[in-house]
Write the structure tokens for this entry.
Amino acid sequence: MQGRNTWRVPAVALGAAAAMSIAAISSGGKGLSAGKAVPDATDQPAYLQVHKGEKLPPDALGEGVSETMADVAERTRTTPPRPGRDEGHIGRDGLWVVPSRGATFYPHSGQHYATNKWGDTRMGIAFPEMVTVKGTYVAGQAASGAWTSGLRVIGYRGAREVGRTAWFEDISDEPAWLEIDLRDVDRIVFEARPVIRGAGWYAIDDFTYVAMDEANRPRETVVDFEDCRYRQTLTGSGYAGLTWETGTGVPEEGIAIHAPKVPPGMDKYPGEEPDGPPAAPQQGRGSPPELYNTFQGVIYGNLGQNYFPPDSHGAVGPDYYCEIVNCNFAIYDKDTGQLYSHDPLYTFMPGADGDPRIIYDPDSERWFAVATNWYNRVYLNVSYTSDPRGSWYKTHILISQGSDAGRWPDFPTLGVDANGVYTASYMVGGNSMTLLAIDKAPLLENPPQLGTVTAFRDLTFEGSIQPALTYGDPGRAYFLSVNSGNRLRLRMCFPPLTDPTLVTAGYISVPPFGVPPDAPALGSYTDIDTGDARVQRVVYRDGYLWTSHTISQDGRAAARWYKIDADDGSVESGTVADSSLHYYYPSIMVNAAGDAVMGFSGSDEDQWVGAYYTGRRHTDPVGEMAEPIQYQEGTGQYNHVDSYGRNRWGDYSHTVLDPDDELTFYTIQEHGFTYNRWSTRVAELGFPTIPENDDCANAIAVEDGVTPSINVGASTDGPDEPNMCDFNGYTHVESDVWFTYTAACTGEVTVDLCNTDYDNKVAIYAGGCPSGPDEAIACDDNSCGDEGAIVSFPVQEGETYWIRVGGFEGATGTTLMAIDCEPESDCPGDFDNDGDVDTADLLFLLAGWGTPDGDVDGDGDTDTADLLELLANWGPC
């Protein structure tokens, strides 16, 4: 539903030197007010921050090369497939680890515990002396489907087994005490029942054993892991004086791309818990876009690339659609879906490993792509022209230096405006983010080159900082991030990009939200990982910022979207949710008409993961989108569990705009495929323009006088809602929309035009195709007089009448037209509505004896009382 909250940015003016001191300089356009001076930065509210940038030295900038896609194809041909990186570990032998913050779920005490990475079902711990193992607290790890169903402990003295526990099955999200009580052992092995392809996960905390001290007195030790750090590997470390053994191995299952990282001690989304109840989900009163075409995208395993999740991303240009995922790059004909080229990511972007993104910039008519090596660099590819099959300039940026030395970039984002290219990453190893502002002009030269790159470091960690893809030139670049459970942070970057200024301009209040739960899916042993609540993509157009993210709604994952006024911060928002389905990883786009489309994934326990879209016309009710439509159903179960037991999906999707007309949308979404694989599917969508039907040639027929719900300019396949025609307040000025009504009876028809509030033009005509308002037999139209909203007119059974609707000048809300094709007679018993009660009516009553037909007195059947009343009214009415 709608949220209306307003923020105000103090009146400041910014310029190139404002990073050192806030000065009185005009900014122009929307956002910060222009031409006002601020005497001292200390007078500003705490949230207004001007960030000092660091211009990167030449040795941080890659030399850059130019090459054609033919060069890439040759490198693909001659380069053997390479194994991927998976958090620095490629085998499947289990390790004892303290999980990462994002993979920590159910500690018994404090923040940390140990888990069996990879779900290895036989994990040992050895002691330097004979001990008595008392027990440990045990809980599940990750989602419930990954939890082992049973755990037991086997004790050894030397190489000989000396005892074992019964199976412990109280494994849940509440840590429970496992009584072990194995005496005089120097080694134990935790044996778990496998639940997913030979693997099963669990967590242990407050592991307790007793050894004898130097005075031969029992000494109890409790290992609580609180002196550990996140992602600490215990195996081989000698932690707590014990030998944490390597497991015996589990089956190989593909290469997991690590989940987006979060700093130590941070929750999955930043800031305080949401304050207040979440907004109610929308009612589906928006207008659905029409599906024009779909085509197959990259599938898990193509070119031998067995990575999960794909990080689905793609963009459309004048002629081609480009898809970039973990770890493939493909080019298609945007109209037919014909595949032109397909290469591994590492041959298209040498040095990069994953987290790829691509956009087409309509301003420069170039393609921009980024990825990271998860070590120290962000990689950038820029096309020479709008044809991605031609030449590309390829370079990289050393981001891990200065205050980011020793940290590595994760989850790089991507945006572009008239002046610059922008990418922001969480710098793993710290608790902050870094934004790179790249001067765009040198990248457009021939030959291209990497010019000024400015790093804004040590920005507050907020999941992701998403730069906007900007249409037009508002004089600044915009950035959004999640600041807390009920507000977003807005940043702006001001040119020139040779010396840019970054400003935290304010906070935007939004309806409260929480972290989404994992989503069940048919055939998935453990629920689908829906990520967290970080914003997913941002687009700026005509003074508004649009973005979306996954939230929790009534215990299910849901897709939340925002339309934010970039001038005053007021918000329109909506939540796309379902009573059964979970929706996750949404991406949103807006076209030149102000209409929006959002794509996402969806599933529940009875449905494989499918690809969905929804949308709204700009004239739809505030906060409303259409009911979601599945354009590609899942075709198989999905089980790809990472080392911490999470069934990885996402981590994002992409919805973009065709630059040819700036009206047509393309979205790329992921769906479950056969044999536990993911697949991607591209959909082309749009809102058809309202046709010019001045000669009534394309009128919409209405059968038998009952009007289904008709969304003008969209689908006529709406639900059967008798006596209602729903126009949804479309903006329609230069042409009229016609539809036909065929009378099912003879008599008076009452029509409620319900349009006086909007000055819409509605008229009804008898016979043929009318040529003007003078032929109208009923109207509510400035040109033929305002006769009131409710009018009546005579109709003949079987005759066709024309209804004209036009002149929707910015109307909002709903226009309804109700047609009653069974007018009531003033004369009880006059069944044929001929104005008198006669033999024809008597015969009709007798034929309906004992049924509702012929019921005159309204008691539900035809009996003697009806016959007597009919006879009492015999004759003219």
